[in-house]
């Protein structure tokens, strides 16, 4: 017996090691160059294909526990837009995650959203960032429906992997094209809950979101004009001869008319390629932050997009030691990119309004905050404000907090209006398309108030 035990011993040890590895394989011991922190981080893949064992489609996530008392804090899923851009590179490492790359190291983000919540960043759909499909034909024509379905399966399986979060209040937040991703995912969650309640979904926070294509995109002309970026005569052309939604529609269906082309050249010439359309007051160039917004704005005629050569996030996430620490793999792509180089997304999905879905979600008891960085000319606050106001009228919500300022510290943080106790609109003063990047402190105040269901501060803090 003694000798047979010896024969079995290596196998036994291997089995024990494998079992403990499975439970630890996703825990990040420490990221290269990371300052010491007390909260846990996890990352890895969740298989979302129909057959789990076949490992045919894996979505990559990065999960950061709340700084203090994660057991009592809500769970927040963060999604970036594009479509096809990375929540890891944009959301986690440039906006509201705990660290920002700086040279070879990471530095703490003092206004990280994990001060208020357990944050889950998801690279979606497959083909974005470290997420992959082994069957590359999957990338040929991905649309909103496919993305929402995979995201639902992801959340379901993620909660099975982290059952301690099953009972937590769940929120979904994001920006830009996530104005499509989030409502459609939430709708599937609500439907799923009718069969079996597993998602404790409480609310959605949508930043500078695409909710209704024509309203969102056509408010750009007025924004350009009112901020002095275009002339009176060009403003007239841009609102009557060829508006922006028509231009984008033609561009993505390969039918750009000479008239739209001419109007757009005029707009481009006046606004100048030296002004950042995602933050009209900012002189900065950080490619990872801008990439997701460049996707929903097709390259304008003759416009060269100057993306910074040196991007710290891209450099950091392409390091082998970083990928090992994150349990990340490059499948079918040579390097990690902010926005997908392999994905062929159906851009005409832009035209499907999601504001109506937002209305049905509010009716089913889910709180919604739409917030706008007020320096963004891509999805300007005026369009979002109009959409929220019209939705409130349509579903019969009366104004409960009239339009007013809110404060962060001793400064005005922005403006807000609340409808009933389910729908609110807020601006973040001085913020770009990516609000937590350009105004981290104000964005955190807004986020904390939203999670707590409390009004935004009315007085100096």
Automatic annotation (TrEMBL):
GO terms for biological process: proteolysis. Gene3D superfamilies: alpha/beta hydrolase. Its main location: secreted. Keywords: Carboxypeptidase, Disulfide bond, Glycoprotein, Hydrolase, Protease, Secreted, Signal. InterPro entries: AB_hydrolase_fold, Peptidase_S10, Ser_caboxypep_his_AS, Ser_caboxypep_ser_AS. GO terms for cellular component: extracellular region; vacuole. Its EC number is 3.4.16.-. GO terms for molecular function: serine-type carboxypeptidase activity. It comes from the Eukaryota. Residues 1-25 form the signal peptide. It is found in: Secreted. Pfam families: Peptidase_S10. Probable carboxypeptidase. PANTHER family: CARBOXYPEPTIDASE, SERINE PROTEASE FAMILY S10 SERINE CARBOXYPEPTIDASE. Belongs to the peptidase S10 family. This is Carboxypeptidase. It comes from Rhynchospora pubera. The lineage of its organism: Eukaryota, Viridiplantae, Streptophyta, Embryophyta, Tracheophyta.
């Amino acid at each position: 017996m003694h000798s047979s035990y010896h024969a079995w011993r290596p196998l036994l040890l291997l089995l024990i090691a494998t079992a403990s590895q499975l439970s630890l394989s996703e825990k990040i011991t420490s990221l290269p160059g990371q300052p010491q922190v007390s909260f846990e981080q996890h990352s890895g893949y969740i298989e979302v294909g129909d057959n789990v064992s076949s490992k045919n489609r894996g979505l990559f996530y990065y999960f950061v526990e709340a700084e203090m008392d994660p057991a009592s804090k809500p769970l927040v899923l963060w999604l970036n837009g594009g479509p096809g851009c990375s929540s890891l590179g944009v959301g986690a490492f440039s906006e509201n995650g705990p660290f920002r790359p700086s040279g070879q190291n990471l530095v703490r983000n003092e206004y990280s959203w994990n001060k208020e919540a357990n944050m889950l960043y998801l690279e979606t759909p497959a083909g974005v960032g470290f997420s992959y499909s082994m069957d590359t034909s999957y990338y040929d024509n991905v649309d909103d429906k496919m993305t929402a379905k995979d995201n639902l399966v992801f959340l379901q399986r993620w909660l099975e992997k982290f059952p301690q979060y099953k009972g937590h209040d769940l929120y979904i937040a994001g920006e830009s094209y996530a104005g499509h991703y989030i409502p459609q995912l939430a709708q599937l969650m609500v439907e799923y809950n009718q069969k079996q309640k597993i998602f404790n979904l409480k609310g959605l926070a949508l930043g500078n979101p695409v909710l209704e294509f024509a309203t969102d995109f056509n408010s750009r002309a007025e924004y350009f004009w009112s901020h002095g970026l275009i002339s009176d005569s060009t403003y007239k052309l841009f609102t009557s001869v060829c508006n922006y939604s028509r231009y984008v529609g033609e561009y993505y269906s390969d039918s750009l008319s000479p008239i739209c082309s001419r109007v757009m050249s005029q707009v481009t010439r006046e606004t100048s390629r030296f002004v950042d359309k995602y933050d009209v007051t900012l002189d900065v160039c950080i490619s990872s932050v801008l990439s997701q917004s460049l996707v929903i704005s097709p390259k304008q005629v003759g416009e060269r997009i100057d993306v910074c050569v040196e991007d710290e996030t891209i450099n950091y996430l392409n390091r082998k030691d970083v990928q090992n620490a994150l349990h990340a793999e490059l499948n079918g792509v040579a390097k990690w990119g902010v926005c997908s180089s392999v994905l062929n997304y159906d851009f005409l999905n832009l035209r499907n309004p999601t504001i109506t879905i937002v209305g049905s979600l509010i009716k089913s008891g889910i709180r919604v905050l739409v917030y706008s960085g007020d320096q963004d000319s891509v999805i300007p606050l005026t369009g979002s404000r109009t959409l929220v106001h019209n939705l409130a009228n349509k579903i019969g919500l009366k104004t409960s907090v009239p339009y007013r300022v809110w404060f962060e510290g001793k400064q005005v943080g922005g403006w807000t209006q609340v409808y009933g106790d389910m729908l609110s609109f807020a601006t973040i003063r001085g913020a770009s398309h990516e609000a937590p990047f350009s105004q981290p402190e104000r964005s955190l105040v807004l986020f904390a108030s939203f999670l707590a269901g409390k009004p935004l501060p009315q007085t100096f803090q």
